Amino acid sequence: MNGVPDNLEQQVIAIIAKKKKVDPGGITPATTFEELGIDSLDAADLLFTFEDTFAIVIPDDAAQSMKSVGQVVEGLSGLVAGAAGTS
């Protein structure tokens, strides 16, 4: 295993759905933060949650490039794999 949870996408969707109080079934990798009504405060809160959940640190430049669910999953998978490789 490469250190990335197989269900990373589902975990990300579940976290976003819980924070925004929306049905996770309506969230796909193509769903953007704008479509979900996620503003900069929500995004910061989500980033802290992802960091805590996956025991990683998300660099500011990576965080700013995350504008959709798919981009978050892609960004986190690299960070989670990197963190798993250093432990």
| Biggest β-sheet description | none
The CATH class assignment is Mainly Alpha
SSE pattern, N- to C-terminal: HHHHH
Q: Distance between the terminal alpha carbons, to the nearest Å?
A: 14 Å
Please count the beta strands (DSSP E, at least 2 residues each): 0
Mean pLDDT over the residues:
91
Q: Helix proportion of residues, in percent?
A: 55-70%
Structure, explained:
- It is a single chain.
- This protein starts with 7 loop residues before the first helix and ends with a helix.
- The chain has one domain: Non-ribosomal Peptide Synthetase Peptidyl Carrier Protein, Chain A.
- α1 crosses α5.
- It is built from five helices and no strands.
- 63% of the residues lie in helices and 0% in strands.
- The mean pLDDT is 91.
- With 87 residues, the chain is mainly α.
Which terms summarize this structure?
Non-ribosomal Peptide Synthetase Peptidyl Carrier Protein, Chain A, 87 residues, mainly alpha, 5 helices
Question: What is the gist of this entry?
Answer:
The chain has 87 residues and is an all-alpha fold. The chain contains 5 helices and no strands.
SSE inventory with pairings:
Elements: H1 8-20, H2 33-36, H3 40-54, H4 60-64, H5 69-86
